[in-house]
Amino acid sequence: MPQRILVLLLSLILLASLASAANLEERVVEHRLANGLTLLLMERHQAPIVAVNLTYKVGGVYEHNGITGVAHLYEHMAFKGTRTIGVTDAEKEKPVLEELDRLAEAILAEKAKGPAADEARLATLRKRFTEVEAQAQQFVVPAELASLYQRNGGVGLNASTGKDLTRYYLSFPSNRLPLWASVESDRMANGVLREFYKEKKVVLEERRQRTDNSPSGRLDEAFAAAAFMAHPYGLPLIGWPSDLEALSRAQTEAFFQTYYGPGNAVLAVVGDIKPKEAIALVENTFGKIPARPPSPPVLTVEPPHAGERRVEVEFSAEPQLLIGYHKPAAGHPDDDIFDVVDSLLSEGRTSRLYKRLVQEKQLAASIEASSDYPGAKYPNLFVISATPRAPHTTVEVEQAVYEELDRLKREPVSPHELQKIINQVDASLVRALRSNSGMALYLAYFQAISGDWRETFNRRDRIAKVTPDDIRRVAATYFTKSNRVVATLVKPEGTAGKAMP
Fold it and tell me: Which of 21, 305, 316, 328 is the most exposed place for a label (fewest CB within 10 A)?
């Protein structure tokens, strides 16, 4: 088949899919509960399956020094159950958990004395803590939540914590929707932080693996801290070790009460449902949860940076490079243009950075860009990350990246490149919205970030209107040295050229 005919057929298929996607917007039903919960529904009867996405408008950006890591830790705790799930006797468990809290506070207070701490008292407290923790464990029914869903056909039970949002998702047979609504409304209203101190150790170990012992993790943490002096985007999502160790169950419970109310949540349900019946079900379960005061917003604004910031991280690993430029948040007109620049520079093997640095010059082993680092709700960074190909250096790669960015300022992007980007966006959107879980994720995400689920469909139309002049203006405005932060992973002195263990 001639290539032009194949391209034409693929284009027709894509256009038909997009027309179908456009019609999807008309099928979204939005309902707001009296307690503030936003409910988004879409009927799809291709299979007797439902996908749910419960998104809370809370993440690491709502933390501060002293409680860093609490959002991610609570995500772990949310799977530990409620007063009726994951426990044999909640009434008998409660005083045991409270005694554990008192012992943990006493241990922390004694350790805070530093050299003056009474080691004998610490040993006694720790021994008693171990005993009481064993008592508390006797009331635990391990992984009962997951087992309950598995027995009823649930798949994909999971959650994720980001800087802006925390999301809980699952797919299951449509006739199990009442069970899900009962369980999840119970988790929203009556979550119990059991196995709290045990789970803190799990998170600390996760931090050691993903950050402390990871070259990319260490570099990323230093990069964010250099990029955001004031704004909490600069704090580590996993948390500082000292904060995690000191974090109390009471502080975590207070965080839950502040940010996990129904008014701070978006629930998307997509699949084999009848909207009127689903609304009635959600009203009868989630609707009974009392409203809570509005969650406090992030007030801190990152001040303008008066010059480039550079940071080096020493680690016995191959070099890596991160280059970031400050940019506006989601909702700003320029944000869509950055999405286009992202695709232009790093989407696929025909993208500019990949072709120039990986294929032609062979300076880099890998290179990619991201237009919303580390979150999207507040002003963030456009980031380019690269790994040099030996024997080339981060200096060579960095200079080559700047040459490509300067080219954006000088030369208009061709219509062919812009059309390719629109095709990529269209194809990605069609793939994502084809599944119930993908549709639920997109609807909940844009409602939570932008306050309008219609962004799922509107964003594509705005990207299609981006012009070469828009790209040149954005490149000239934002890709400047004074607006830049650079982080480089380097080997410690004396280790260059040595074989890695």
Answer: 316
- Amino acid residing at 398: E
Is the pLDDT score of 220 beyond 70?
yes
Provide the CATH topology of domain 35-87+140-288. Cytochrome Bc1 Complex; Chain A, domain 1 (3.30.830)
Q: Hey, where are the domains in the chain?
A: 35-87+140-288, 309-490
The C-alpha atoms of residue 33 and residue 36 are separated, in whole angstroms, by: 5
Q: Is 195 left (phi over 0), alpha (psi -120 to 50) or beta?
A: left
Measured CA distances, 8 to 4, 14, 15, 16 (Å): 6, 10, 10, 12
331 exposed, middle or buried (CB, 10 Å; 0-12, 13-18, 19+)?
middle
CATH number of 309-490: 3.30.830.10
* Rounded average pLDDT over 10-19: 48
Locate tokens 């610490």: which residue? 122
Q: Which residue has the higher pLDDT, 124 or 306?
A: 124
- Return the half-sphere exposure (C-beta side, CA atoms, 13 A cut-off) of residue 234: 16
> Is a pLDDT exceeding 60 seen at residue 201?
yes
140 - beta bridge partners?
87
DSSP string, 201-267: HHHHHHHIIIIIT-HHHHHHHHHHHHH-SSSGGGS-TT--HHHHHH--HHHHHHHHHHH-SGGGEEE
Q: What is residue 492's predicted lDDT score, i.e. its pLDDT?
A: 92
Question: Percentage of residues in the chain with pLDDT exceeding 70?
Answer: 94
pLDDT in tens, 100-155: 999 999 999 999 999 999 999 999 999 999 999 999 999 999 999 999 999 999 99
Interstrand relation of 309-314 and 484-490 (parallel, antiparallel or unpaired): parallel
The answer to whether 35-87+140-288 and 309-490 have equal CATH topology is yes
Whether residue 391 is preceded by a cis peptide bond, meaning omega within 30 degrees of 0, is yes
* Amino acid residing at 461: D
Alpha carbons 189 and 101: distance in angstroms, whole number: 22
Rounded CA Rg of the chain = 25
Instruction: Specify the pLDDT at position 501.
Output: 34
The residue type of 469 is D
Structure tokens at 175: 């006739």
Taking the C-alpha atoms of residue 10 and residue 31, their distance in angstroms, rounded to an integer, is: 37
Relative to beta strand 28-32, strand 38-43 is antiparallel
Give the residue-averaged pLDDT of 465-493.
96
- Beta-carbon count within 10 A of 87 CB: 20
Q: Phi, psi at residue 412, to the nearest 5°? A: -65, 140
What pTM, to 2 d.p., does this model score? 0.92
Determine the distance from the C-alpha atom of residue 7 to the mean position of all C-alpha atoms in its chain, rounded to a whole number. Answer: 36
What local confidence, expressed as pLDDT, does residue 24 receive? Answer: 79
